[in-house]
Amino acid sequence: MPSILVDLSDRRLYLLEGGRVVRSYPVAIGQILTQTPTGTYHIINKVPYPYSRPGGRLTPYGTMWMGLSRRGYGIHGTNNPASIGKRVSKGCIRMYNRDVEELAGRVPIGTTVVIRE
């Protein structure tokens, strides 16, 4: 089974298979006051979002949400691609929409997610 490592200091998410890095993605992480929590979690759900809601409003989660076993936190896309690589979220891990869609297609529910400094 694949696993995910999020390195906050690098602001990168790594997809591992057999303990080997097979993909690396840039991410945005939590602001100083709403830091991304470190620890070991699991993906508990995956919810695709249309890029915009009725009325044309963009979703804050981009095109995909993958919820973590820590309530209220997840890995998701963004409607603001310029935020990737920065400390801007309320603790979630943001990815480019194309990257989070690719990742969601490669990892099943139950995938381990390790977040470290």
Overview of the molecule:
There is one protein chain. The chain is mostly beta strands and 117 residues long. The chain has a single domain (3-116), classed as L,D-transpeptidase catalytic domain-like (Beta Barrel). The chain is built from one helix and ten strands, in the order E-E-E-E-E-E-E-E-E-H-E. The strands form two sheets. Strands 3-2-1-10-5-6-7-9 form an eight-stranded mixed β-sheet, with helices on one face. It has a two-stranded parallel sheet with strand order 4-8. A hairpin with a 5-residue loop joins strand 6 (64-68) and strand 7. The chain is globular, with a radius of gyration of 13 Å. The model has no long low-confidence stretch (mean pLDDT 94). The active site is at residues 76, 92. Residues 2-116 form the L,D-TPase catalytic domain. Pathway: Cell wall biogenesis; peptidoglycan biosynthesis. This is Lipoprotein-anchoring transpeptidase ErfK/SrfK. Pfam families: YkuD (PF03734).
Quick recap:
This protein is mainly beta. 9% of the residues lie in helices and 41% in strands. The chain has one helix spanning 97-106; strands spanning 3-7, 12-17, 20-26, 29-30, 39-48, 64-68, 74-76, 87-89, 93-94, 112-116.
